Amino acid sequence: MQSVLDAVVEPRRREILRLVHKAELPAGAIAARFVDVSRPAISQHLRVLRDAGLLVERREGTRRLYRTRPEGLGELRSFVDEFWDTRLEALRQEAEQEQRSRDHEQSERPERNGGKRDRGG
Amino acid sequence: MSSPSDRNATVESVTEVGEPIVREIHVRAAPETVFEFFTDPGKVTRWLATEATLDPRPGGVCHQDHAREDGSGGSYHMRGEFLEVSPPERVVFTWGFTDPDVGVPPGSSVVDVTLTPDGGGTRLRLEHRDLPVATIESHADGWTGMLVRLATAVMTTPGD
Description:
The complex is a heterodimer.
Chain A: H1 2-8, H2 11-19, E1 25-26, H3 27-32, H4 39-51, E2 55-60, E3 63-68, H5 70-108, H6 110-113
Helix pairs in contact in A: 1-4
Chain B: H1 5-12, E1 21-27, H2 31-39, H3 41-44, E2 51-54, E3 61-67, E4 75-86, E5 90-95, E6 109-118, E7 121-129, H4 143-156
Antiparallel strand pairs in B: 1-7, 2-3, 3-4, 4-5, 5-6, 6-7
């Protein structure tokens, strides 16, 4: 997952992902969109994105064509979800431990907290 | 060569706000116990934050520092506000960070937690909504915002 984060942290790579999200494009056409970036630099970005599982590369003769890999982006969504999964699991453990210690406290002091507590009814 | 208008079409395919993130878990603890883990600083720091300043009433501050997990030892600064505090059933607060690299500015998103008694324990439902995904050209290019924007772009594009 870290490679995905590394891949999308660079603005040009995000721009590339957007470019090839709907249409498969050859490397040359992608490079042509970035007038201020060298061709080798674009090739490097494409390699990082491919290795992170975000791009599918296809060869057609001497051309290389790229398209966004939708499953790769699904993993990104999962990463955001995972923040809450991880935190809520920690919450569950802490809250259950808290409850156990409260229950334990109550059972140790039955005269004060247990049994015949008059609730005024 | 593709025409320049293709680029605009790609940008416009992104919607304003992503689908809410929804999580549900069962906790073997009373709703009253679970509730305090959202409103008591001493308990929030047991599962979510490293530091917390909380004033749990509508309009009160909900400030949390979260550890950066990049080995730097630094913090993310969540600066939210409580919108609803109804113990032990519901707590709602805004969620956003003063750190531009997170890409979710203060006030931009909402965390809505409902607690329902369930078999001697609690069913906890957390909905995180209004995560910003609008500004594809935004300067707030943090990874969180970007991940959500990308995911939303994919989910909302017809024909995938």
